Amino acid sequence: MNNPPKELNVGHMLSYIYYFFAKFGDGQIVMEEQQSIYETITEWMGKDSSFEENKKVLLEAWDWFDGCEDYEKPDVLENVMSVLKKSDALPNDMLPLILADLVKLAKADGEISGNETALILRIAHSLEIDMAYIKALL
Question: Residue limits of the Co-chaperone DjlA N-terminal domain (predicted)?
Answer without folding.
Answer: 26-132
